[in-house]
Amino acid sequence: MGILVFFYSLVCLLLIVSESFSSSSVMMHHVCSPTEAFALLHFKQSFQISDQPICWDETDLQYERYFDIPKTKSWNESRDCCSWDGITCDMLTGHVIGLDLSCSRLNGTIHLNSSLFQLYHLRTLNLAYNDFYSSSIPHNIGRLTNLRHLNLSYSLFEGEIPTEISYLSNLVSLELDCDECELDEKTFETMLQNFTNLEVVSLYGVNISSPLPVNISSSSLRYVDLGHTNLGGVLTESFFLLPHLEKLYLYENDLLKGVLPKIHPSNTLLELDISYTGISGELPDSIGTLSSLNILVMYGCQLSGRIPDSVGNLTQIRYLDFGNNHFTGHIPSTISKLKQLTFLGLSSNSFSGEIPDIFSNLQELRYLYLRNNSFIGSFPSTIVSLTQLQRSYLSSNSLSGQLPNNMSMLQKLTLLDLSYNSLNGTIPSSVFGLPLLSSLSLQHNQFSGLDDEFKTNPTFKHLDLSHNQLSGSLLQSLSNLTNLSTLVLSSNNITVDAGIQITFPSLEDLLLSSCELKDFPYFLTNVKKLQQCGTSDLSHVPQPLESEDESYFFRGFTWESVVIGYSCGLVAGTVVWSLMFKYRKPEWFVEFFEGIYPKKMRRSMKRAQRRRT
Ligand SMILES: *[C@@H]1O[C@H](CO)[C@@H](O)[C@H](O)[C@H]1NC(C)=O
Ligand SMILES: *[C@@H]1O[C@H](CO)[C@@H](O)[C@H](O)[C@H]1NC(C)=O
Ligand SMILES: *[C@@H]1O[C@H](CO)[C@@H](O)[C@H](O)[C@H]1NC(C)=O
Ligand SMILES: *[C@@H]1O[C@H](CO)[C@@H](O)[C@H](O)[C@H]1NC(C)=O
Ligand SMILES: *[C@@H]1O[C@H](CO)[C@@H](O)[C@H](O)[C@H]1NC(C)=O
Ligand SMILES: *[C@@H]1O[C@H](CO)[C@@H](O)[C@H](O)[C@H]1NC(C)=O
Ligand SMILES: *[C@@H]1O[C@H](CO)[C@@H](O)[C@H](O)[C@H]1NC(C)=O
Ligand SMILES: *[C@@H]1O[C@H](CO)[C@@H](O)[C@H](O)[C@H]1NC(C)=O
Ligand SMILES: *[C@@H]1O[C@H](CO)[C@@H](O)[C@H](O)[C@H]1NC(C)=O
Ligand SMILES: *[C@@H]1O[C@H](CO)[C@@H](O)[C@H](O)[C@H]1NC(C)=O
Ligand SMILES: *[C@@H]1O[C@H](CO)[C@@H](O)[C@H](O)[C@H]1NC(C)=O
Ligand SMILES: *[C@@H]1O[C@H](CO)[C@@H](O)[C@H](O)[C@H]1NC(C)=O
Question: Which of 130, 135, 311, 465 could form an S-S bond across to 106 if both were Cys, CB 3.0 to 4.6 Å?
Answer without folding.
Answer: 130
